Amino acid sequence: MSEVEMSVEKHVFEADVAKLLHLMVHSVYSDKNVFLRELISNAADACEKLRYEAIVAPQLLGSDPAPRIMLTLDEENARLIVEDNGIGMSRDELVESLGTIARSGTRAFMERIEAAQSKDGAQLIGQFGVGFYSAFMVADNVDVVSRRAGSDTAWHWASDGKGSYTVSAAEPADAPARGTRITLHLMDDAKTYTSRWTVERIVKDQSGHVPVPISIIEKPGAEPAQVADGTALWTKQKSEISKEDYTDFYRGVAGQYDEPVLTVHFRAEGRHEYTALAFVPGSKPFDLFDPDRKGRMKLYVKRVFITDEAELLPRYLRFVRGLVDTADLPLNVSREMIQESPLLASIRKGLTNRVLTSIEKLAESEPENFAKLWENFGSVIKEGIYEDFERHTQLLALSRFRTASDDTPRGLSDYVKDMKDGQSAIYYLTGDNLAQLQGSPQLEGFRARGIEVLLLTDPVDSFWVTTAPDFEGKPFKSITQGAADLAGIAKRDSDAASSETSPAVAEFVTFAKATLGEAVSDVRASDRLTESAVCLVAPEHGPDRQLQKMLQGAGRIEGAAKPVLEINPGHALIAALAGSPAEDHAFREDAVKLLLDQARVLDGDKPEDPRAFAERLSRVFGRALQANR
Ligand code: ADP
Ligand code: MG
């Protein structure tokens, strides 16, 4: 064995990678062209990383300062070679980047596939692109030879995509002077990727706006011919850019393969100058609900990529993808300096305003696209109602809500316009799912009066409603909290008399209160019920029912306030119970406790003591049967 062969190390892929590769190799996804976008995008990233490192270490550029990406076609050997003169990878970086799933998007992708248990993997590949490993959709063997900028040694990574890969030292003569050369040994059905015409078309379609020039070498030894000039799209005039150009660029910058639902491109002039190009994706990015809630907007200085961690937008706009390029920062700005720079604060403000006004315009001019945007990102935008004090009114006005009688989300201005005489608040009901909310007894009195109630099902809803300012002078009010104050508003079919509280019912309420004692904070006759006999609400002050449950679930409050049991004085069962003989004490006690458990069940909870509940129910059943005999 030669020395070189002995130093070949064999590694097994991380389990997730192996699974992903299996999927790639067996992919039935028809648009295999995406692999080229992924490799070119990595090559461009590598050139941008080098440019950034070279700001403080210019010697890294040596005598070859201009970035480039080269595609060599080798029909005879059925190979496609993608080469860049970017930052390159050390041995450890090769193992880390190509042997494990490093990027969170790919990990999320795997989780989805597992959750879906299925072949839709192929479809997901199409939607999101999964980076380097997509090479195995077209190649049965991949060689990566890379030399990190500034290093004498080069490394060779090789794999057939079947569970393992090798890493060995590369012959310096066979390695690029700097950067990475990826050789794809094309599968039989992928030989078309050695055709000049095919490759050129794909590059122009998909990657024409990558900010690094791309050339094609038609066969080994031929002269390179440039097919994309590396002009940054965002520096062009809007009038020179087509919708397709924007979409291609979006796909590259966002790593998403859908169509953006909104594109915002502008140049800010005046005290601070910068250009921004931002997109709202047409579908939810994988990392939307990552706990770090990080944005992904990129910061460039004079067309040099600096960082994607500058947080150029507030967290509630983290779904926006794109970049800001400014000439007003020094190129060698440190990432720490960026955070404190007043320019950045100004960019953040300007960009946030611009994105929000563009969304507002979209709502007016393209309601369907806006509806799509809201469906995907409304639950994120609503975080801003409690996080962005300056803009909370603007965000409320932008928000759309389903209501108890309308399944199409509508805005608050519409809601306010439809308010009934005597109605002073915007009513809402929070919970986990729409169907359960629709069946809530607390809604009945509102429905009977034609009063709209917002149905809020996002977890974030329970929080913003507690801090939201009034909207057009109307406060928000939970219908599961405090008194309903509906008595003053006329019902649609005015049989108001039936809900009058008779002396017998008043006496029954007093009895119920005495019986339930500490289990509730109050028992009272209700004007919010029309069909159900009972319901639970929260006391006037403090969290409403849903928030209370959420806080309790998270262990955030102990000994939560006891609920109020409301009784429908117009309900036949209540009337009958109120009329039952007071001596029948045991029966009435059973009935009251059953009513409380019934209210709990209607709230989506369980009876507090299931055994006692079952016994009570049996006793009451038994008695009803006896009476019937
Ligand atoms: P992503 O580009 O989203 O990080 P990829 O799967 O496309 O994910 O690539 C994984 C990693 O491999 C990259 O983050 C990078 O560190 C490394 N890499 C891939 N291609 C190159 C390249 N041409 N030059 C330098 N590093 C590369
Ligand atoms: Mg990539």
UniProtKB/TrEMBL annotation:
One of its GO terms (cellular component) is cytoplasm. It holds the Pfam family HSP90. ATP binds at E38, N42, D84, M89, S104, G105, Q127, F128, G129, V130, G131, F132, T180, R335. Gene3D superfamilies: 3.30.230.80, 3.40.50.11260, Heat shock protein 90, C-terminal domain (1.20.120.790), Histidine kinase-like ATPase, C-terminal domain (3.30.565.10). Residues 31-190 form the Histidine kinase/HSP90-like ATPase domain. Residues 1-335 are annotated as: A. It is found in: Cytoplasm. Residues 550-629 are annotated as: C. The keyword ATP-binding applies. Its main location: cytoplasm. One of its GO terms (molecular function) is ATP binding. Keywords: ATP-binding, Chaperone, Cytoplasm, Nucleotide-binding, Stress response. Molecular chaperone. Has ATPase activity. Belongs to the heat shock protein 90 family. HAMAP family: HSP90. Homodimer. This is Chaperone protein HtpG. It comes from Rhizobium fredii (Sinorhizobium fredii).
